[in-house]
Structures are given as structure tokens and as C-alpha cells.
Amino acid sequence: IRKYTRHELGNIIDSNVDTFDVCRWNVLDIRDIIGLQPHFLGAIYRAIIHKCFSQVERLKKRMGASGSDLHWWYSFDEAHRLFEDGLFCAAIRDVLKEGRKFNYSVGLTSNSVSDFVKFKYRTDLLEQARTFMFYGDPNAIATNETTLADYRNMAVPDRGVALLPRMPTYSFLLKQPGVLREARLGITKEQLLVLGTSRTAPLVDQAIARYGDSPEKWGPPYLRSRGALWAADRLEQIYGAEDYREDRLTEILGEVAA
User: Fold this and answer.
1) pTM of this prediction?
2) 207-222 mean pLDDT
3) Cross-strand pairs, 196
4) Residue 10 confidence class, pLDDT cut points 50, 70, 90
5) What phi and psi, each to the nearest 5 degrees, are found at residue 85?
6) CA distances from 80 to 6, 18, 111, 116, 138 (A)
């Protein structure tokens, strides 16, 4: 785990630079350890969770009164790999119960509804989580009793399950207290040019390999290769401006989406 305590990924565990003070997002990429046995992976994750929570609490104290009004979001992707660790499950249960008290939210994402059905503290999850999102599932049909049972175990009513097999691309079933509806992301072709997908990621990698890893170098030729000529020109204008800031990249991507 040396990679996760040194260099660019070390900021979240051990670093001379405290990125919690200067960054809007702190991300730990676990692709290099995801293949470990669950008890090893769970141990590393528990250390990371403790570090994140304690770091945020210190930051809130340093900010004084304004810190208490800020909201933090902790997102655990591929959560099913961590559900195999009992101590991690207990930690998530406690976080779900105490989150509102400390003004933070927790997101758990996985590839299958059955992963959450198997979660050791599923009852706590159903009681504490206020929002559930389910993407379309062609297997949620009458002849597939196992899949139907999984959704019902996650408290999805039959009228919601009936929507899942015929939901359009880039839409999901939104379930909240008193709310059950199909929600569409509204992703356009223009947005797909800049969103990371299994199809666009290799093209971005190729552009980076050819032009360098700075967005101002690979961004414009990449956008031109996808047919977004005006977006490439606009990106060059932003990077060439005297008042250029890194967060201006978010602005141009928003304009592309619009």
C-alpha cells in the first residue's frame, strides 16, 4: 500500500500538503488494491474512513461558525466489495445513523440490487437512507422471481419494479419518502463528448498519449476529433486568457453540455 501513503495518492493518508484545505474533492482510487482479500481491503478502507472523518472535523473546527454550516458528501463506489468485511459494514451502519448529526451524507453504489440485499445491515440502510436510485433492469420481469424479490426486499413497490424493464437509457427510478418516479438525466450527445464513459475513455487516453497530459494540450484536439469544433475553440480561448484559472474548465464543460 506504499502508493497510498506516498506521492500523489498519499494526500488522503499521509502528506506534507493538506488537500482538505484546498480541494473541493478528495478521491482515493483503489483499483490497485481492489483484488485483495476482503479483510485486507476492509482494513485499509477503515483507516481511510477514519482519516477522512477526523480531517473534516478538524477543518470544521478551524473554520469556526461557518464550518458547522458546510455539508460533506462521502461516496463509496463498488460498495459490494466492502460489504464482505464485517467491521466495514458496522462502520457504514454507524455513519448512516450519525450522518445528519454531523451534517454529512453517505452514498453507496454497486452494480446489482442483490448486493444491497446481502448487506449485513440492510434494515438499518432502509431505515436511515432517504434516497435510492435504481437504473433500468431488463431482468426485473415476472418470470425472474429472484430479481423481483431483491427489489421488494429493498422496499421498491410493484409499480416501481414494473418501470425498470422499460426505462430509457440514462434514466433511473428515484425512490424517496413519498416519491417514486422515473427521472431522466437528460444527457445530450454534446455532454457525452466530455463525460467519462467506456467509449470515450480510450479516446481521451489516446489524446493524452499524443499531446501530453495537460488539458490545454489534449482537450482541443480531442474535442475536434469528436466534431465539437466550437467547443475546442472556446477551450483554447479560456486557456489562453490572462485570467485563466483551473476551475474555468468546469465552465466550458458546462457550456458544452448546454
Assistant:
1) 0.64
2) 83
3) none
4) very low
5) -100, 120
6) 27, 30, 8, 7, 21
